[in-house]
Amino acid sequence: MLIVLITLGMLLSCADRTRPAPVVSLSGKTASPPVNKATIKSKQYKVKSGETLYSIAWRSGKDVRTIASLNQLSAPYRIYPGQILLLTGKGSKTLASAKASSKINVKTRQPVQKNVKKVVANQKTQAYGEKSGGKFTNVKVPSLTQKVKSWMWPVNGKIISRFSSSAKGNKGIDIAGNKGKPIKAAADGLVVYAGNALRGYGNLIIIKHNDDYLSAYAHNESLLVKEQQRVKAGKVIAKMGNSGTDRTMLHFEIRFRGKSVNPTRYLPKI
Fold first, then answer.
1. pLDDT score at 122
2. What is the overall mean pLDDT for the chain?
3. Cα distance between residue 184 and residue 147, in whole Å
4. CB-based contact 119:135 (threshold 8 Å)
5. CB 207 within 8 A of CB 214
6. What value does the CA radius of gyration of the chain take, rounded to a whole number of Å?
7. CA–CA separation, 150 vs 161, rounded Å?
8. SS3 category, 205
9. Which residue segments constitute the domains of the chain, with CATH numbers given?
10. Global confidence as pTM
11. d(Cα 131, Cα 172) in Å, to the nearest integer?
């Protein structure tokens, strides 16, 4: 009987040694797998409730103007749940869902004037739309032609994850900090998205700085600005948090014509 018990104990001991050890971070906490930012890689996309052309362009890494052109969407950019959008290719005359077959009128795009001195409030506007309460709501989005004079850090803190240009790499930088720490706008602009509908980003703010540049601020505890609100560089727009992730931090991105760029190449040297 004693021999049987000893043999059984040895077998259990061997079995324990074959189990993989849990992955533990340097802080002593069990590490979580990377957060899936739910990017769109397909050539076509079916619009879901609550999405806008900007949020779809962000997830697909496309310029919003490119998607609008492919689908012959003119201002206001009305999209609705169930609509099929073409994300790559040459486009087609009409792209509609099974529930709609109405044609979309295409207006000739006006060239951007040089040496524009008018303030943004007087500039020509574009628009995008989303479906709310069963009805379309048209939201005016100014065509911002001014240059980004300078960028500033959205928050001070240690960079815990840097930008990577690889397909599965970090498309921005992650900055550690304490919950509730003020998050600031990195440059002047217009808030074009404020919400939590983009999986993997938590409470997210996207700011349009001009027709080429966007910036994003993710994983916030709370959002202090609303869509269509104009902000100045340095304005507190959110509070740091851990929504959509496993630690308190700010995930910060800069996009140029829809493509991710390294934020540290634009931000002041520290």
1. 39
2. 75
3. 19
4. no
5. yes
6. 23
7. 23
8. strand
9. 36-98+124-143 (3.10.350), 159-265 (2.70.70.10)
10. 0.64
11. 30
Q: If you write DSSP's letter for every residue of 21-40 in order, what string do you get?
A: PPPB-TTSSBPPPPPP----
Given a cut of 60, is residue 119 above it in pLDDT? Answer: no
Choose among 213, 208, 202: nearest CA to 174.
202
17 φ, ψ (degrees, to nearest 5)? -70, -20
Q: Where are the beta strands (DSSP E) in 61-166?
A: 77-78, 84-86, 125-132, 135-142, 159-161
Residue 172 identity (one-letter amino acid): G
Written as one letter, the residue type at 134 is G
Phi–psi pair at 65, nearest 5 degrees: -70, -30
Cα separation of 95 and 172, whole Å?
33
Cβ pair 130, 52 in contact under 8 A: yes
- CA 106 to CA 118: how far, in whole Å? 27
The order of strands in the sheet holding 125-132 is 77-78, 125-132, 135-142
